[in-house]
Amino acid sequence: AFDNRIKLVEVGPRDGLQNEKTSIPMETKIELINRLAQTGLRTIEAGAFVSPKWVPQACMDKSSDILQHLLINPPSSPKPLTFSFLVPNQKGLDNAFSILAKNPSAFATSPDDATASKPAVELAVFAAATESFSRKNLNCSIAESLATFRQVIQAAKESNPHGLSLRVRAYISVVLGCPFEGHDVDPHRVAQIATELLEMGADEIALGDTTGMGTAPRTKDLLVCLRAAGVRNEDIAFHFHDTYGQALVNIAVALEHGIRTFDCSVGGLGGCPYSPGATGNVATEDVVYFMETLGMDTGVDLDKVADIGEWITKEIGREHASSVGKAVLGA
Ligand code: HMG
Ligand code: MG
């Protein structure tokens, strides 16, 4: 039967804010997460346990505070929530675990066990499809990063403070274009990395079009290649940036192919500090509206998300990048 249920992963609080030049107050980040939790969105990427020298906004002590806060004061939400945090290495995992260990009964280790008052926590590792991007973003080769992720995934599965298995998402960046190597990213290489990450125990592969250089035909080629390599649709999420305005077109291609999980960012916030010129993620408002026009079910309240997009872009002094958001608000 045709499955019309869509899972949206809201990455605004992490990807959306990590590129801002000025420091964003903790209260604003928490308010953003709390407000997003009221909209029907169920998975929210809330921070990154990365080196503060590399990405000051996402600075790990702030992410520790955010995680701690969310466990002690889970947002009131109509549905159980999952909060996701990036971890690039063992140090990031240790930092995340140290918060989880302080509050072992406050979190559920899988979305299935989450309740309204007990959110699930998910961790995300992030590889790249090109050597240049891997080097810039992680300061190591693809092979070195995969060796690190093997250990991180294993540790996340085996030695978290509950002794249970945390869900792990694995990103692959620059799958449809690299700021340093151009358009011709090899889809076979992407499929190979995805297969390796799944074999390590990753629960989901998030394919990042970091630069927004992806086009409809190349999105299709990549999906065909992944299918030929045996990667299942249910293991794939797409993470489109909208730099060239192609995100919805690419999402349509992925939808037709059977993909049902998409990342988005309220107000179209975002960018990547190691992808010069790349702008925001596809806006949550745009994706929710697009899905509604197709009869797909996101479970997300468009008006509420539009209000948040308007508020957060004003709050941090960014241009409001969602066409749908602006239209809905009559601006
Ligand atoms: P490195 O410099 O090679 O790390 O960076 P190192 O192991 O040599 O350590 C150097 C220092 O960093 C040490 O401190 C470590 O303790 C510290 P010192 O002894 O000098 O005082 N350190 C850490 N501190 C906090 N948390 C940690 C951590 N690890 C080491 N986890 C490293 C390697 C991976 C740490 C660095 O390159 C890094 O943090 N990279 C992350 C970059 C990043 O966050 N990029 C943005 C997110 S990815 C993205 O946006 C793409 C995505 O949206 C998908 C898409 O669009 O494609 C996900
Ligand atoms: Mg991104």
Automatic annotation (TrEMBL):
It comes from the Eukaryota. It is an enzyme of class 4 (lyase). Keywords: Lyase, Metal-binding. Its EC number is 4.1.3.4. GO terms for biological process: ketone body biosynthetic process; L-leucine catabolic process. Residues 6-306 form the Pyruvate carboxyltransferase domain. Coiled coil: none annotated. GO terms for molecular function: hydroxymethylglutaryl-CoA lyase activity; metal ion binding. It catalyses: (3S)-3-hydroxy-3-methylglutaryl-CoA = acetoacetate + acetyl-CoA. The keyword Metal-binding applies. The keyword Metal-binding applies. Pathway: Metabolic intermediate metabolism; (S)-3-hydroxy-3-methylglutaryl-CoA degradation; acetoacetate from (S)-3-hydroxy-3-methylglutaryl-CoA: step 1/1. Belongs to the HMG-CoA lyase family. This is hydroxymethylglutaryl-CoA lyase. It comes from Chaetomium thermophilum (strain DSM 1495 / CBS 144.50 / IMI 039719). The chain holds residues 58 to 388 of 398 of the full protein.
